[in-house]
Amino acid sequence: MNDLDVMKFPLYTPCSNHFLSMTEQEINSVLRQRYLKALHLAHNKPAEVQCYENTGLSGRFQVIAPSGDYLVLSDVQTPSGHVQHVAIRASDVLTMTVDLAS
After folding, report:
1. Domain chopping of the chain, boundaries
2. 0.85 surpassed by pTM
3. Which residue has the higher pLDDT, 25 or 22?
4. 46-98: which CATH number, 1.10.287.990, 3.40.50.300, 2.30.30.100, 2.40.33.20?
5. H or E stretch including 83?
6. Which distant-in-sequence residues (6+ apart) come within 8 Å of 90 by Cβ?
7. Measured at the alpha carbon of residue 69, what is the angle toward residues 45 and 6, in degrees to the nearest 5?
8. Residue 11: closest CA among 43, 34, 41
């Protein structure tokens, strides 16, 4: 399987028989490609983050740290005002929604 074959799969697909014929390494490769594609599509898109203590933030999604420990938003509107950039610990996030259509 080459890199172009991975891009033929839509980002979200229900399980299909195609995966049954793939090795575990090929499946992991496809899933990793989809994850990276989703991050690429989400970059600089409007995002809503719901944190503990019923705190909500809205801004533009920028990046998730390679370790997955935190995410970065820009132009963030918080309950206490506007912040240009924030780094949020992933452990503080309940949900994050990114509007890929905009």
Report:
1. 3-42, 46-98
2. no
3. 25
4. 2.30.30.100
5. strand 81-89
6. 64, 68, 69, 70, 71
7. 60
8. 34
Tokens representing residue 43 in the block: 């970059």
Distance CA 70, CA 61 (A): 12
Mean pLDDT in residue range 80-92:
94
Which residue in this structure is represented by tokens 């005002």?
Answer: 81
Pairwise CA distance, residues 16 & 20, whole Å? 8
Write down the residue that tokens 């240009």 correspond to: 84
Position 41 pLDDT exceeds 50: yes
